[in-house]
C-alpha cells in the first residue's frame, strides 16, 4: 500500500482574501448573510478540489471557520455565555460574531470574549468562557454539514476538530480563571465528542482528526489523568471511523507512552518542532500495532521549500519502528500564505526556494511517492534531484560588514547607564509630565483615504511630493486632535506605514516582499510578513524625517515610534540557514542606528515596540531562557543602550501574558512599557506588584479590537483597579494597541473618555 498523505488544515481566508471581504461587507451592511454563506461554500469547494488534484488522501473538512476554530468548538459544545444568548439574534452567525467582536446596538451592549495567541503563532483564538452550570451538549451541525458538503462533491474528507483536552485547558471560567475539571464537566465534554464520533461513523467518515496541540506543553498535576479520562470515554464510542490524535508545535515525549497505549488509529507528531524528542519517544516506546504514525514532515509554519532528503530520513527513522507511517503537514497550513502564484515581484531564481500552502501540497505528495520508491528509482527521480539542487551551495551572499559589526560587540554594548531609577528621576524633570500621563500606542486609524493615497503612490499615480504632503496633512490633523482632547505624550499616527514590520523591512537591506502572501491573524484580519533573505543592515534613516516633522508641529512631547528586533524577526519569515539569535542581532544593530538618529533629531521619547516578544516564548518552560530569552532580552538592550539618560525609552507588548517572565521584561531595561490588557485578565498586575516591577507601565484600559466605545466611568473603574496593584508614580494611561484598525468615529470619543477618566482620577489623588 502506498504511503498515505494527510493535510492537517488548509488556509480558509481565500487566495485573494475573499472570506475577509465578504464578512466585512456583511458587518458593514454592504451584503447579506446569504452572500457570506455562498462565498464560504465556494472557498471550501475550491480548497478541497485543490487538495484532491494534488493527490492528497486525507483532506480536512471543518477546518473552515467564519472567525475562529476555537470559537466554533465552544459553540459546538454549547459553551455560549448567557449575555450573548440574551441578544436573541435570529441567525446563529450573528451570535458568533457578537462573541467574537462584541456588540453594541439595539439589542444590547456586550464586550467580546477575550482573545489570545494560539501557542507560538501570530494567530489569535477566542477564549471560551464556561459559566457555572453550563449545559454542555452537542449544539451545532457545522462539522457534519461541511463533511456532507464535500461528500456531495465526491470528496470523502477527514473532519477536523479541536480536541477536548486542548479545549478544556484553554477555556476559562466566567472569572477568567482556569477551569476545575470536575467529573460532571469532563463527562459532559467527553459525551459530546463521543456523539460526534458516532455521528461521523453513521455519515461514513473514514478518519476523524482531533487536534491536541496542548499536549506539547509541560504537564501540570492531573493533566495526564484528564487526557486519559477524556479519551478512554471517547474511544469507547469508536465504531468504524478511525481516530487520528494530532499534535503539533512541539513534542509529546512526556506522554507518548500513555498516548500510544490508548488505542488511537493514528498519532500525528510534529517532526519539525520537537523532532528529536518525538523520534526518541517513538523509538523508546514503540508504536501499537494498529496505530499509524502521521509524520509531520512538511512544515506548516515556514515558507521555505521542504528538504526531501531530510523528510525521507525522518520517515525512514520511523519505519525502523513501525511499517505504519503516513506523511502529513506538521501543523495546519492555516499559518502559511496561499500560493506563490502571482508573486512576480520576486525573481524566479529566489521564488523557487519558496513553498506556500498550495506548493506544500505537492511537496507532501512528492515526499510520499519518494518514500515508497526503491533506491534505484530515487536515483533517477527528477523531483528529488531538483529538490536537492535547491539546498546545494549557499543561497545568500553574506555581507561581511554586518558580520564584522556583530563580532565586534562587547558586553558594555548591552548595558544602558545610569541605572533605571536614576534615569526615571532625570526624565521626570526633563519631560515635566503629570501623574498618570496619557498616551496611545502609536497608530491612528488608517482610513480608506490613507490607504487609497498609498496605493496611488505605489502605482506611480501621484508624486512622492504629493504623497508626503498628504501624509503631513494627516499628521497635522492627528496632532491637532490629540492636543484638543488633551493627551500628554503625542504620536504622529503612523500614517506612512502599511505595517509595523513590513515598513521597516522595506527600509532595511536583506528583506524580500510578497504581493499577496497574507496569513490570518484574527477573525478577518491578515498579516503579510516580509521575508528575511540575506544579512540585515539599515540602508538609510527610516522614521527620522517623519518624527522630526511631527515634533516641529507641537509643543507636546512627540514619541518616536520604532519596531524592535525581536518583533521584526518574529513577524517576518526568518532564514533557516543561520540562527534566530544571529538574525536578531543584525536587526538590533540596524534599529540602534535609528534610535540614535531620532535622539539626535530632538526626539525625547522613543517607543520600540516588541509587540511579538511574548509570542515566541517556547512552549516548554525548560526552553524559555536557553532557547529564547537569553538572547531576545539582550537584543532589546542593544537597541537602546547608547541613548542619553534623559531620553525615555518605551516599549510595547501585545498581550499581558507575562506573569512568569516579568523579571525578564524588567531586564529589557526600558523606562516605560505599555501592554495590551483589557481583553484578558489582569493577573499580570499581581505579578507586577509581587515582583516589584521597576519599569513604569501602562496596561491598556480599553479594548480596541471591538468597535464599541467605552464609557468614561468604565475606564475610571479600570484605572482604580490598576492603582490597587501599582504605585501611582509608575502608571501610564493608554488604550490597547492597534488603533490603526479602527475608524475615527469610535477612536476619538473613546480617547476623549480615556483622557477624562485619567483627569478625574488625578483630581482625586
Ligand atoms: N505602534 C504600533 C501601533 O500602534 C503597535 C502595534 C502592535 O502593538 N501590534 O499600531
Ligand atoms: Zn500591541
Task: Characterise the protein shown here.
- Helices cover about 45% and strands about 15% of the residues.
- It is built from 29 helices and 24 strands.
- Strands 1-14-13-12-11-10-8-2 form an 8-stranded parallel beta sheet. The protein has a 6-stranded parallel beta sheet with strand order 15-20-21-22-23-24. A two-stranded antiparallel ribbon has the order 3-4.
- The relative contact order is 0.09.
- Glutamine (GLN) binds near residues 442, 611 and 652.
- Its EC number is 2.1.1.14.
- It catalyses: 5-methyltetrahydropteroyltri-L-glutamate + L-homocysteine = tetrahydropteroyltri-L-glutamate + L-methionine.
- This is 5-methyltetrahydropteroyltriglutamate--homocysteine methyltransferase.
- Keywords: Amino-acid biosynthesis, Metal-binding, Methionine biosynthesis, Methyltransferase, Repeat, Transferase, Zinc.
Amino acid at each position: 500500500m502506498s504511503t498515505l498523505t494527510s493535510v492537517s488544515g488548509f488556509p480558509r481566508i481565500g487566495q485573494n482574501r475573499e472570506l475577509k471581504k465578504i464578512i466585512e461587507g456583511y458587518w458593514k451592511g454592504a451584503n447579506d448573510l446569504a452572500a457570506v454563506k455562498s462565498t464560504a461554500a465556494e472557498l471550501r469547494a475550491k480548497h478541497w478540489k485543490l487538495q484532491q488534484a494534488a493527490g492528497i488522501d486525507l483532506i480536512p473538512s471543518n477546518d473552515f471557520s467564519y472567525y475562529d476554530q476555537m470559537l466554533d468548538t465552544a459553540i459546538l459544545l454549547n459553551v455560549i455565555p448567557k449575555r450573548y444568548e440574551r441578544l436573541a439574534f435570529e441567525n446563529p452567525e450573528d451570535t458568533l460574531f457578537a462573541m467574537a467582536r462584541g456588540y453594541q446596538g439595539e439589542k444590547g451592549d456586550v464586550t467580546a470574549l477575550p482573545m489570545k495567541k494560539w501557542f507560538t503563532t501570530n494567530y489569535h483564538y477566542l477564549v471560551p468562557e464556561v459559566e457555572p452550570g453550563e449545559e454542555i451538549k452537542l449544539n451545532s451541525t457545522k462539522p457534519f454539514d461541511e463533511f456532507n458538503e464535500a461528500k456531495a462533491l465526491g470528496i470523502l474528507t477527514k473532519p477536523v476538530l479541536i480536541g477536548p483536552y486542548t479545549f478544556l485547558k484553554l477555556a476559562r471560567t466566567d472569572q477568567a480563571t482556569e477551569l476545575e475539571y470536575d467529573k460532571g464537566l469532563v463527562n459532559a465534554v467527553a459525551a459530546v465528542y463521543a456523539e460526534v464520533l458516532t455521528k461521523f461513523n453513521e455519515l461514513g467518515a473514514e478518519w476523524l482528526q482531533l487536534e491536541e496541540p496542548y499536549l506539547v506543553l509541560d504537564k501540570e498535576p492531573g493533566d495526564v489523568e484528564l487526557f486519559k479520562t477524556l479519551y478512554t470515554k471517547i474511544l469507547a464510542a469508536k465504531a468504524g471511523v478511525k481516530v487520528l490524535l494530532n499534535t503539533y508545535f512541539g513534542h509529546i515525549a512526556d506522554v507518548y507512552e500513555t498516548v500510544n497505549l490508548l488505542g488511537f488509529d493514528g498519532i500525528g507528531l510534529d517532526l519539525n518542532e520537537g523532532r528529536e524528542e518525538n523520534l526518541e519517544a517513538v523509538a523508546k516506546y514503540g508504536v501499537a500495532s494498529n496505530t499509524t504514525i502521521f509524520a509531520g514532515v512538511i512544515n506548516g509554519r515556514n515558507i521555505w521549500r521542504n528538504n526531501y532528503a531530510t523528510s525521507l530520513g525522518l520517515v525512514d527513522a520511523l519505519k525502523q519502528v513501525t511499517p505504519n507511517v503516513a506523511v502529513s503537514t506538521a501543523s495546519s497550513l492555516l499559518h502559511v500564505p496561499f500560493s506563490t502564484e502571482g508573486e512576480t515581484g520576486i525573481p524566479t531564481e529566489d521564488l523557487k526556494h519558496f513553498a506556500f500552502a498550495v506548493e506544500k501540497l505537492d511537496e507532501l505528495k512528492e515526499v510520499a511517492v519518494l518514500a515508497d520508491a526503491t533506491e534505484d528509482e530515487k536515483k533517477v527521480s527528477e523531483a528529488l534531484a531538483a529538490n536537492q539542487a535547491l539546498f546545494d551551495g549557499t543561497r545568500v551572499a553574506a555581507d561581511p560588514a554586518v558580520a564584522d559589526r556583530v563580532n565586534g560587540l562587547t558586553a558594555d554594548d548591552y548595558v544602558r547607564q545610569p541605572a533605571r531609577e536614576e534615569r526615571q528621576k532625570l526624565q521626570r524633570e526633563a519631560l515635566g509630565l503629570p501623574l498618570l500621563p496619557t498616551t496611545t500606542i502609536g497608530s491612528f486609524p488608517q482610513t480608506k483615504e490613507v490607504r487609497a493615497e498609498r496605493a496611488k503612490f505605489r502605482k506611480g499615480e501621484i508624486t512622492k511630493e504629493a504623497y508626503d504632503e498628504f501624509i503631513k496633512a494627516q499628521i497635522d490633523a492627528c496632532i491637532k486632535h490629540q492636543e484638543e482632547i488633551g493627551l500628554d505624550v503625542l504620536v504622529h499616527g503612523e500614517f506612512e506605514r502599511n505595517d509595523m514590520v513590513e515598513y521597516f523591512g522595506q527600509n532595511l537591506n536583506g528583506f524580500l516582499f510578497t504581493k499577496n502572501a497574507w496569513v490570518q491573524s484574527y477573525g478577518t484580519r491578515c498579516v503579510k510578513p516580509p521575508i528575511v533573505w540575506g544579512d540585515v543592515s539599515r540602508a538609510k534613516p527610516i522614521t527620522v524625517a517623519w518624527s522630526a516633522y511631527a515634533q516641529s508641529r507641537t509643543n507636546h512631547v512627540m514619541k518616536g515610534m520604532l519596531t524592535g528586533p525581536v518583533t521584526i524577526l518574529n513577524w517576518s519569515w526568518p532564514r533557516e540557514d543561520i540562527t534566530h539569535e544571529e538574525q536578531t542581532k543584525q536587526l538590533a544593530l540596524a534599529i540602534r542606528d535609528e534610535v540614535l538618529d531620532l535622539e539626535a533629531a530632538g526626539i525625547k521619547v522613543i517607543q520600540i515596540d516588541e509587540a511579538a516578544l511574548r509570542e515566541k516564548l517556547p512552549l516548554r518552560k525548560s526552553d524559555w531562557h536557553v532557547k529564547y530569552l537569553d538572547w531576545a532580552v539582550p537584543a532589546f538592550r542593544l537597541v537602546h543602550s547608547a541613548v542619553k539618560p534623559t531620553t525615555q525609552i518605551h516599549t510595547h507588548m501585545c498581550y499581558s501574558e507575562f506573569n512568569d517572565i516579568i523579571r525578564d521584561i524588567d531586564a529589557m531595561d526600558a523606562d516605560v512599557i505599555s501592554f495590551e490588557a483589557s481583553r484578558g485578565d489582569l493577573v499580570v498586575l499581581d505579578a507586577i506588584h509581587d515582583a516589584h516591577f521597576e519599569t513604569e507601565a501602562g496596561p491598556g484600559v480599553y479594548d480596541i479590537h471591538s468597535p464599541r466605545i467605552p464609557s468614561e466611568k468604565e475606564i475610571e473603574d479600570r484605572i482604580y483597579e490598576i492603582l490597587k496593584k501599582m504605585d501611582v508614580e509608575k502608571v501610564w494611561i493608554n488604550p490597547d494597541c492597534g488603533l490603526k484598525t479602527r475608524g475615527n468615529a469610535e477612536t476619538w470619543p473613546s480617547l476623549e473618555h480615556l483622557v477624562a477618566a485619567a483627569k478625574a482620577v488625578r483630581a482625586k489623588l
